[in-house]
Amino acid sequence: MTTPDLIVPPPVPRPRYRKFLSWAVLAAIFALIFMRVPLEEVLRSALQVRLVPFTAITGLFVAALIPLDAAMLYYLVGRLHRPLPFRAIFYARGAASLWQSLTTMAGHFGMGVWLARNAKIPPAKAASTILLVVLLETYALLVPPTALLLVLPGRGPALLLQHSRDGVILVSLAAAWLALGLAILFWKKSGPNFFQRLADRVGLWSSFHRASARDYAVLLAGKTLLIAVTCVFFVILLPSTRIHITAVDVFLYFPLVSLLASIPITPARLGTTQVGFLIFFPGANPSDLIAFSLLWQMISNIFRWIFGALFLRLSMQGSEETSSPETPAIP
Q1: How many CB atoms are closer than 10 A to CB 165?
Q2: Residue 304: is it exposed, middle or buried by C-beta count within 10 angstroms (0-12/13-18/19+)?
Q3: CB count, 10 Å around CB of 87?
Q4: What is the 3 state secondary structure string of the chain?
Q5: Fewer C-beta within 10 Å: the chain N or C terminus?
Q6: How far apart are CA 201 and CA 215, in angstroms?
Q7: Whether 29 contacts 293, CB under 8 Å
Q8: Distance between start and end Cα atoms, the chain
């Protein structure tokens, strides 16, 4: 494997105003946060965190997500394109941790580039598969809060008629699931139509059409498992801090924090993550939440850089097994 075949994405020219705007948004968010939560209180809260267990658990969290994520992509690529060695996808996903430290979408973009360059999947089809992963990963974040809001005592479908915070959340979730159902019906049941023929011709949306209902279900279930594992690690982290949040609230609201944090309007998910914590965990001490979220992001990214560099070396030693032309997908 030569250097151009690595997971490193090519530089994408970005207008200077966009770079400036993302930093300006971040500065504005932090200015508003620290107007409400004094910086000295945040520093005091950070000093109260038991750093050794916090760091160890965060490292395990970052390491655990790599094989889980790789397994989902391994399944989908085998279904829609051709079987690839799991080891190759595992190494590539680990190397993509470098770019995931910037934004979630950067990590996905890196995997798309790897599929196109290294696995020789046509770029538009590789991008289509990554877009499908992004869509179902987004919806996996909605599974725990939707399920809990429907079944928890004192909540349930009656929330749809209430003007409370949970009522607004459940209405929004119901609308999102309805949109996904209609989209799947459109792709799977209404064809062939103009948009499906265009998708097959252009390739960018082809994976949405080619994926079966089972593929949607398996990938959504797998990504939901990944979200559940993330929530479990979050619960395990809490005793090393001064934050008191129930496990139920973690599974209910932390996926929504992650959803808000994934909006690519600031560098490295900073600012949006802190806003998410303040919005969805109003009962906790704000300075503890800000300190926790900043430490969590910083230490997670350090581990992503370490694992990314390690897997980048491993990917350089990979075989040429992934570079043959695209063959039929698994039936």
Answers
A1: 13
A2: buried
A3: 16
A4: CCHHHCCCCCCCCCCHHHHHHHHHHHHHHHHHHHHHCCHHHHHHHHHCCCHHHHHHHHHHHHHHHHHHHHHHHHHHHHHHCCCCCHHHHHHHHHHCHHHHCCCHHHHHHHHHHHHHHCCCCCHHHHHHHHHHHHHHHHHHCCHHHHHHHHHCCCCCHHHHHCCCHHHHHHHHHHHHHHHHHHHHHHHHHCCCCHHHHHHHHHCCCHHHHHCCHHHHHHHHHHHHHHHHHHHHHHHHHHHHCCCCCCHHHHHHHHHHHHHHHCCCCCHHHCCHHHHHHHHHCCCCCHHHHHHHHHHHHHHHHHHHHHHHHHHHHHHHCCCCHHHCCCCCCCC
A5: C
A6: 22
A7: no
A8: 30
pLDDT in tens, 140-185: 999 999 999 999 988 888 888 888 889 999 999 999 999 988 887 7
Residue 63 burial by CB count (10 A; 0-12/13-18/19+): exposed, middle or buried?
A: middle
Number of Cβ within a 10 Å radius of residue 147: 14
Using alpha carbons only, give the angle 86, 220, 261 rounded to the nearest 5 degrees: 95
What would the pLDDT profile of 178-222 be if each residue is shown by its tens digit?
998 888 777 766 556 676 676 667 667 778 888 888 999 999 999
Distance CA 211, CA 14 (A): 33
